[in-house]
Structure formats: structure tokens, C-alpha cells
Amino acid sequence: MNSINRTLDILSYITTCASPVTPQSISSALDIPLSTVYRLLTILIDWEFVSHAKQYGTYCVGSQSIKNQEKYYHHSLLMSASKQELQTLAKKTQETVAIITSNIRETICVDMIESEQALRCSFIIGRGNTLIKGASAKTLLAFRHEQYQNQVFEAHAKQLTTEQQKLKLQQDLQQIRQQGYGVSVSEIDEGVLGVSAPIFKGNDVLAVVSVMAPEFRSTHRVDEFITHTSQTAHNITKLINLE
């Protein structure tokens, strides 16, 4: 087996695993020498197809892999159905709506329908945003397992400089997991309210559906946004799991 095939095998293995993996597990699963695994992982990291959590010695998909999900998303058999759900949500709320996924370092917007009403928002299809602020990011993180969350905390150590900040984030994640959705105001963009609900593939969170609107015209609609966003996420989850 040549290096190209082995590199693609490693990337495919990491992509299909539900949680970060070790070089040893890659070597064992693919029957590739451990030294070769390390060498090829270095290449994948350099190209941002794979991310490395040094403290835990594990690897997961990188930003380029996540961004490429946008292309898959737009060509998948479920695109028309999920797009319809997003269009329905946009029509009901009359606000900007999006589907957002993530890797261990950032969120990536993979689809968006912008409101005709003015909104200054950082989310653009294919662009990354922080994974520790905002309803979308924290909802994605809330439904990950504890080891994954700890790896995210490590990757964002420069932003989580105190134990109080980390504790507050953990409390936010626990609340989101308990209630089944996330709400934020001005955490990424000043004056923007966000509501997000998780989309699942089996037991794993795959993405979130989010509604974003200016706070000044939407604080009285939070409960409405939660209802519509949660229903949309539920509908898309059902469609995805029909595959």
C-alpha cells in the first residue's frame, strides 16, 4: 500500500470515528506501522485535515475536513429535505437561520438563509468561529462527551484563562444539555441573539440548527424561536437517520 492510500485510509478512519483516536488505535485498526502513522498524521495536521490534542495524545478531524462537509452537505441525498426544513424555519421566524457543525477548534457554518431584515453577523458559510462562545458553539459542545469537552478546553486555553471562566462554561453546557437547546446574547456579535438546537446522527451530535436575530427586535420572541428551532432540529434528525 503506497503512502497516498495510507494517508487517505487514516483520514477516513479518523473521520468515521465518533470520538478522537490515538495513533496506536489507528495503527491497530489499519495495520499500518506506528512510525508511518505518526509521519502521515504530521502531513494531515500541516494541511489542517486533522487536529491534535497534545495533552491527551489524540487526533480528530481538522478545519479543512469540516469545511469539506459543506460540499458533501450540498450534494447529499438529504440536501433537498433539510434545505426545505431550513427554509420553513426562515419563513416562520423571518430571521437568519443556519446549520452549523464543528471540529475540536472551531464551528463551521455549512448552510445559511439570511433574513431580509438587517443583521450584522460573523457567520458566513465555510468560515470558522470560536467553539466556546455563542449558542451554536456551546450547544454543539454540550452534547459531546466529557473527554472531548476537556480537549476543547485545552485547545482554547488562551481564552479560558481562569478557573472561573472554565467553571462558567461547564455550567452553561450542563444547562444546555438538560434543557435541550442553547440561547445566547452578544457572545460573538454585539446585540445578536442566538438560539440553537442539536441535530443527531444516532447518539452523536452532528450539527445544530440556529436562529440569529438582533436582540432589540427579538427578546420577546425567544420562546417562539426555541420552539421552532427545536422542531426543525428534530425533523432534520429524523431525516438524517433514515439513511
From TrEMBL:
Domain HTH iclR-type: 1-63
Any one Gene Ontology BP term: negative regulation of DNA-templated transcription
Domain called IclR-ED: residue spans: 64-242
Key words, A-Z: DNA-binding, Transcription, Transcription regulation
Positions in coiled-coil regions: none
GO terms for MF: DNA binding; DNA-binding transcription factor activity
Name of the protein: HTH-type transcriptional repressor AllR
